[in-house]
Design brief:
Length: 397
């Protein structure tokens, strides 16, 4: 078998506008530069656990969940909160106050202590005009109080409580749904999702009890707030007085002859699947159009990982792996004329014995024309021959 392209797997080499993959066929390593685009600054979690900002066009290798790193690819998003890192500019009521220059995520010194004097409804808040599907997130850490709550109005008055003592979700009410994600050393990113039909008033409460707003004397630590349109939170977007937009990432290549098998082959990706309800792309072989492509990703319509084949605009096959759960996955698509298969974590989950292979000249890691949500790509590979079932089982196990 000829492994014609290796990407990632702990080997990351990039600069502005470029990130490298390698051709190691016959152990003769040759660099294969991918075009990388993002016309704005963006943040990433570095090897030390700090959330740092990288420049426009700089690939983001994220080390939050993997010590070997993963390429972070995201769609465009806007943080509507004008002061994402300065809680002294937020409105405070009910005996709330803040003190800055506290240790934050990864050891930064720009967190705040959010204090309560024991009054009910102790909160920080901001009013904005956002409507539609929204994600409101803040980083938080327990001090003397165990809980924070996030609130947002706009019809259902959603509210979610977060237990900072053990990193678990508390009550979820008023059509608000929550998630909590560890960032190490007791820090968690707390997120609430909901749909708003009117003016948004986002609030942060602290408490020592689930389902209670304020009413306890003490404090929690908070850092980096974000309000964005969408059903899930993306990487932190810093603001300093006005809303800021992070543009989309793109990673693609028109590959040399011999890298993509034209009549048979395999494309492989290892991903960190977070779970969501939106379309996602893990990788695609194509000719620059939607008419000739082999793509694999997640379908929100079918709640499935999928492998889709189109040749000259005609569908050649659609294979699916239903109802994935949160976790890491190794996924391979194998193809030849009248022989397609989808492999997931060591198992052939679907196959199709008919159809013709499209002519493809480009390979996109992660995203594709039309986008959708992208995920951290831990590694990706191409083979110019269709591997045996035993080889595919070993590759994806």
């Amino acid at each position: 078998m000829a492994n014609t392209l290796k990407f990632g797997n702990g080997e990351w080499y990039g600069k502005e506008g470029t990130i490298l993959a390698y051709n190691d066929e016959n152990y003769n390593y040759k660099p294969l530069p991918f075009n990388f685009e993002r016309d704005s600054r963006a943040t990433v979690v570095n090897k030390d656990g700090l959330i740092e900002t990288v420049g426009s066009g700089q690939p983001r290798i994220d080390y939050k969940d993997d010590s070997e790193g993963a390429l972070l690819l995201e769609p465009q998003r806007t943080n509507s909160l004008p002061y994402s890192a300065d809680f002294s500019t937020w409105f405070a009521t009910g005996g709330a106050s803040v003190v800055g220059n506290k240790l934050g995520v990864g050891g930064s010194n720009d967190a705040f202590e959010f204090l309560s004097n024991g009054s009910a409804n102790t909160r920080l808040y901001y009013s904005l005009s956002n409507t539609g599907e929204l994600s409101f997130s803040v980083f938080a850490k327990k001090n003397t109080l165990d809980y924070i709550a996030l609130y947002g109005n706009g019809g259902s008055n959603p509210r979610v409580w977060f237990n900072l003592a053990d990193g678990t979700l508390g009550n979820q009410e008023g059509a608000g749904t929550g998630s909590i994600e560890s960032y190490g050393n007791g820090w968690y990113r707390c997120t609430m999702n909901w749909t708003s039909a009117s003016l948004v008033n986002v609030r942060i409460y602290n408490s020592n009890e689930n389902d209670v707003f304020g009413g306890a004397t003490g404090s929690v630590y908070i850092q980096y707030a974000q309000l964005e349109a969408g059903s899930y939170p993306t990487s932190y977007i810093p603001t300093q007085g006005s809303a800021v937009t992070r543009l989309a990432d793109s990673c693609s290549q028109t590959v040399p002859d011999g890298v993509i098998g034209q009549t048979e082959g395999v494309a492989y990706a290892e991903i960190d699947w977070k779970g969501n309800d939106e379309e996602s792309i893990f990788g695609v072989l194509h000719d620059g159009t939607v008419n000739n492509r082999m793509d694999f990703g997640y379908s929100a319509t079918f709640n499935s990982f999928y492998f889709n084949v189109r040749t000259n605009g005609s569908s050649q096959g659609l294979m699916q792996y239903s109802s994935p759960i949160v976790g890491k996955y190794k996924i391979a698509i194998a193809y030849e004329n009248n022989g397609f298969a989808l492999w997931v974590n060591g198992v052939k989950e679907a196959s199709d014995g008919s159809g013709s292979v499209p002519i493809t000249t480009k390979y996109n890691v992660g995203n594709y024309i039309g986008g959708g949500r992208e995920y951290p790509i831990i590694s990706s590979k191409l083979y110019d021959t269709k591997l045996t079932d035993a080889e595919l089982q070993a590759l994806t196990s």
